[in-house]
Write a structure and sequence with these properties.
Structural class: alpha+beta
Strand content: 25-35%
Oligomer: single chain
Length: 489
Amino acid sequence: MKKNCYLLLFLLVFGQLFQSCDVQDDNKVPEDIAIQNFVWKGLNLYYLWQADVPNLADSRFANQSDLNQFLYGYSDPKSLFQNLLNKPRSLFPNPGEAIDRFSVITDDYYELEGILAGTTKNNGADFALFYKDASQTDVFGVVRYILPNSDAASKNVQRGTIFYAINGVALNKNNYSDLLSPDTYTLNFAAYDNGNITPNGQSISLTKTVLSENPVLISNVITSGTHRIGYLMYNGFYPNYESQLNAAFANFKAQNITELVLDLRYNSGGSIATATRLASMITGQFTNQVFAKEQWNAKLEDYYQSNNPNTLLNLFPTRLGNNEMISSLKLSKIYILTTKSTASASELVINGLKPYINVIQIGDVTVGKNVGSITLYDSPSFSKEGASTKHRYAMQPLVLKIVNKLGFGDYTNGLEPNIALKENFGNMGILGNVDEPLLNQAINAIIGSGRSIPSNRVRHFEALQDTRNVTRLKNEMYLDQFPNAVLSK
C-alpha cells in the first residue's frame, strides 16, 4: 500500500512536468547521467525550496532531452546537487548568507544509514571547536564527553580536556577538517590558563573504530529535600535506541521523580518520530493531540492537504515504533539544558512542548534548525525499495519546515534560554554530578534556593564546529518514512 502511495504521488505531481512530450523521448535517460537525473527529479519533487530555484521549476525544460542537455553540464552529481539548492552554505559561506545550511548528498547510502542510526567511525572523544580570539583564525578543541567502549575511554582523555593541535600541527579554520579526518591521529593538549589556551607539552594518540552510540548517556535520580529530580543526558534521536530511552523513563516513574532535567546540550537531532515519542514520555496527558505540524513545498502541500491532511500532523503517541507502550511521567514542567550544539529534533521537543507545559530552558541559545529532511534513493518511488544497483548515491535534502500546535516555528536564530549560562572551560564539571554548573543551575531553579552562577566572569569563545557537524548528517532532523499519500484502509 505504502509503495503504491509513493508511486501515485510521483505520477500525479511529477508526471505533469513532461505531459506534452513524446513518450519515447520522455523515457530516454543516458546511463552516464542517470545519477544526475535522479538528483534533479528528486529535488524537483521534494525539495522544500523547489519554487525558489529556477532550474528546478516544473516548466524549466520542455522535455527529457532538454533536461539531459542541462544535466550533461555537470559531470559530478554532487556539484549538480549543490547548484540546485537554495543558497547552500557551500556556495554562500559568509555568516547570514546561506538559506539551506543542511541538505546533503552522499555516494554511499550505507554510511548515511549508519550515521542516522548513530553508528560512525569514531575514537570516542566527542568535542567542540572554538576560535581562540576575535580574528577567527586559530582554533582549539574541548572534549565534552567520552563514549563508553571507545579508544578514548581507555586512555587519558576526559571531559574538559583541551587540544590545540593534531599531530603537532596547530588547528585553524582552514585545516581542522583535514587534520581530524584520518582514522588515527595525535591530540596535542593545552591548559586553560585564565582564558588563555596554553600548550602543555602533553599528547595522546587516538584511533577510530566503528561505534554505535547509545544516546542515553546518563540517567539518574538526585534527591534534594522533598525533591526527587530525574536527570537524563540524551545525545541523539536514534530510533533503534528508543527502548533504552523508554526504560530510563520507566525507571524515573518507578522512583517517583517530582521533576525532570533533560540534558540536550550536545544533542543535534535525529528522528522526528523519536522526538515525538520522547514528548509523550515527558507528558502522557495529551495523547492524540497535535505535537507538531509539517509544512512541505507548495505542490506537495496541496497534494497532501487534498488527499490526507492528517498525514502532516505529528500527534502525541502511546507506543514506540516497535509497538512498545510508552512510559509517561505526565509532567507539567520540565527543565532542559541547551548549548549552541542543541539543534533540530532537540529544538522540536522544546518548541512542541511549549504550548502544553512549562519549559524552562537553561544554558545557551540553540542552533535554530526548524527544517527536516528525508532520505531519497534512486528508485521510481525514491524509497529504498527498487533502488539502483549500479551506484549507492542518496540524497538527504530539506523537505519540510516544522511548527508547533500554535503554528510557531520561526526560530532560525535559535531558541533563547530562560536562564542564560554558558559552559566554562575552566570548570566543565562532571556530567550528572550535582556540582556540574548547568545541572547545578537547574537544581537551584527547582528547589528555589535563589543561588545562581554568574555567566559574565569567565571568557567565552565563538563556536566553530563540533563532532556532529564535522561528521555530516549527525545533525539531521529527519523523517523515517514518507507521509502516506492517500488514506489508509
